[in-house]
Amino acid sequence: xxxxxxxxxxxxxxxxxxxxxxxxxxxxxxxxxxxxxxxxxxxxxxxxxxxxxxxxxxxxxxxxxxxxxxxxxxxxxxxxxxxxxxxxxxxxxxxxxxxxxxxxxxxxxxxxxxxxxxxxxxxxxxxxxxxxxxxxxxxxxxxxxxxxxxxxxxxxxxxxxxxxxxxxxxxxxxxxxxxxxxxxxxxxxxxxxxxxxxxxxxxxxxxxxxxxxxxxxxxxxxxxxxxxxxxxxxxxxxxxxxxxxxxxxxxxxxxxxxxxxxxxxxxxxxxxxxxxxxxxxxxxxxxxxxxxxxxxxxxxxxxxxxxxxxxxxxxxxxxxxxxxxxxxxxxxxxxxxxxxxxxxxxxxxxxxxxxxxxxxxxxxxxxxxxxxxxxxxxxxxxxxxxxxxxxxxxxxxxxxxxxxxxxxxxxxxxxxxxxxxxxxx
Length: 425
Prior knowledge:
Blueprint: E1 4-5, E2 12-13, H1 22-26, E3 32-36, E4 42-46, H2 56-60, E5 70-71, E6 76-82, H3 85-88, H4 96-108, E7 111-117, E8 123-128, H5 150-159, E9 164-168, H6 170-180, E10 187-192, H7 200-214, E11 220-222, E12 225-226, E13 232-233, E14 236-239, E15 245-248, H8 254-260, E16 278-279, E17 283-287, E18 304-308, H9 311-319, E19 325-329, H10 332-338, H11 355-362, H12 364-371, H13 377-400, H14 405-424
Parallel strand pairs: 7-9, 9-10, 10-17
Antiparallel strand pairs: 1-2, 3-4, 5-16, 6-18, 6-19, 7-8, 11-14, 12-13, 14-15, 17-18
């Protein structure tokens, strides 16, 4: 897009606006409101009759003024896997967020802010303060979260001397820090190693299409799935109220296909100021892309990369967070090399010019037929195999601990199993 958003008192190109809505939160006269564009992304719009030209919106914009950051070259880098296997099953990879948030709620008696679905699958930042609510914030949500009410709520709690942990994309964390305008000792932040975000409107189209295709209504979705083991797969899972589920990979899901092609992201994601080694969060978390290099650390399981950046985050790591994880030292050089949000923004494909127009004009179903394939028996079996096969190894591993011929034989089977997993993943 070459258009500029001239509704604000300052000029910012649409392609640079992250939609964090910090400008809306800081406006002293409520002159700014969120407006959805034709693709479904939110942009700020200013009512010039209310605007007093205070310029606060420009001062706190994370696209115009980058927030204070920490270099991961000076962080404490870890590859982590949550010890609580029940909680781990609901995590996208190694459960880094859950462990930090659990420590924060139990030890600091604080509030945690993160992204959650509402009953219409709209993703919003919500506040929780109980461990039993943590599952709402778990698992990746590959869509832009609505943060409109969160910033003011965070500030209100901080001013009351409450401890707050805020988790979000780097631009959302930067927006919060700029909005606050000062360093609060009772605020901790987690930034996500973010690939980029599609729009809520596109996700709604995907869910409507899945409901129509399957002639069923689904009441829960996940972008990452586990079977009865701890390996995580990139499958979109839709679940009915009776527990029945349907799984789709990028071949069967247009939403996932476009996401992996980087063809449906917000324009600002292609020129992100925060896709580098300088992180705005006290903690930075994401899938561990270098996990294959840690041969003795859960080689067939999905681990998280955890960068412990700030002094107070490092203090909390040694004060108790570390006890919640199995962990090893992360190879920072390899992680930067393999995990692109630590290096650069997503590449903008040519398809991005037309994809939203095609979907909204020609219809989701027509575009789906051009880019995806229906779920056939072979695809369904492949997905079920990946979700179920590693559970066999859990049983075999318990038998391998037995002494004698049985134990040695089972160890041989496990070795064969590892080779099968590498071929089918």
